[in-house]
Design goal:
Keywords: Membrane, Transmembrane, Transmembrane helix. With 331 residues, this protein is an alpha+beta fold. Helices cover 29% and strands 28% of the residues. The strands form 5 sheets. A 5-stranded antiparallel sheet has the order 2-11-10-6-7, sandwiched between helices. A 4-stranded antiparallel sheet has the order 1-3-5-8, with no helix packed on it. Strand 10 and strand 11 form a beta hairpin. The protein starts with a helix and ends with a helix.
Length: 331
């Protein structure tokens, strides 16, 4: 293990240095409700690979100037070195004193991707350019970039996979910049108190909750000989003779059967016990599907879970209450 660390330090010095700094800093990052101000002492900075190449080039130029005693080469070397130091100052100052606030994060279903909104406020009179937000070890192409005008703010969202139902916390994220020349990488870590609910993944459509004359259903129950007439259909084996529409026989070569729609109660109960043949997560997925279907049909529905009963209702708030109970069930 020690030899592996030495090899990593020699082959990838920048990555090794950043890993060591990140481990030291991450142990000290605390979740805060926000806003979080970024003090100068919490901004860390290291050269990029281009910065290392730039420093090596300056060293070669300085050695050449010393070897040939060329005053113009000395002037150019010190001029470029001064530009590099000035760039380091601007890169560090580009992050200092920014403020971070939690934005909106909407609930999602398991398997989807949540989008964590983070607002960056610039309280200074200087504009801040090329500010990046990213999760730890995220690909550079996934970094959300923002240019923030003086005394203004910008909101950016970071994608966060939601693999399991329950509460999903955003976790630690990075704020970084390489402005203006890309010779230095400045960054800091922060964690805002951001969380959202992940609902169970809905089951595929098709199954309907069991319904009877005392309990609602998500579909009309077609029964012969009761309640309201709803139309005619073709004769099928097993239909009784009293259900046949005899008046249509002279006009149709095939017997037609009268259909009646049974009027059920408006309140629909979605119950855990009606899905005893399914496993734990499959029950939650099916109940989630029924909640969404009932809400789409504008039906009044209630939810019965072990230890939890939600009275029938409808609307967005009622749907959220039911989905929240399913998301946190036995969580």
């Amino acid at each position: 293990m020690r030899l592996w660390l030495i090899a990593k330090m020699l082959l990838h010095p920048l990555r090794w240095a950043q890993d060591r700094i990140d481990a030291w800093v991450m142990a000290r990052v605390k979740r805060q409700p926000g806003p979080i101000a970024i003090p100068r002492g919490r901004v860390y900075i290291v050269p990029t690979r281009f910065g290392y190449v730039f420093a090596f080039m300056l060293l070669v130029m300085l050695l050449g100037a010393m070897n040939y005693s060329n005053s113009m080469a000395f002037l150019l070397s010190f001029l470029l070195a001064g530009i590099g130091l000035l760039c380091m100052h601007h890169t560090h100052a580009n992050l200092a004193n920014l403020q971070l606030r939690a934005g909106v994060i909407s609930p999602v279903f398991a398997g989807d991707t949540a989008h964590v909104e983070i607002r960056i406020d610039n309280p200074s009179a200087q504009q801040r350019l090329s500010i990046g937000l990213s999760w730890p070890r995220q690909d550079v192409s996934m970094t959300a970039m923002a240019d923030i005008a003086a005394l203004q703010g910008e909101t950016r969202s970071l994608p966060l996979p939601a693999a399991r139902r329950g509460w999903l916390r955003a976790g630690v994220f990075s704020v970084s910049t390489e402005y203006p020349l890309g010779l230095f990488h400045a960054w800091t870590w922060a964690e805002l108190d951001i969380a959202t609910l992940v609902f169970p993944r809905p089951a595929t459509p098709g199954r309907v909750p069991p319904g009877s004359a005392g309990q609602g259903s998500l579909e009309a129950s077609n029964r012969v000989g009761q309640d309201e007439f709803s139309g005619l259909r073709s004769y099928q084996r097993g239909d009784t003779a009293r259900a046949i529409h005899w008046k249509s026989l002279p006009k149709s070569p095939q017997p037609m059967v009268k259909q009646f729609q049974e009027t059920l109660d408006q309140d629909l109960w979605l119950e855990w016990n009606t899905l005893a043949h399914l496993d734990h997560e499959a029950r939650l997925s099916q109940l989630t599907r029924w909640v969404l279907d009932a809400d789409t049909l504008h039906r009044r529905y209630g939810l019965r879970l072990p230890g939890t009963v939600i009275a029938p209702g409808q609307g967005e708030a009622h749907r959220f209450q039911c989905l929240k109970a399913l998301a946190l069930f036995d969580a």
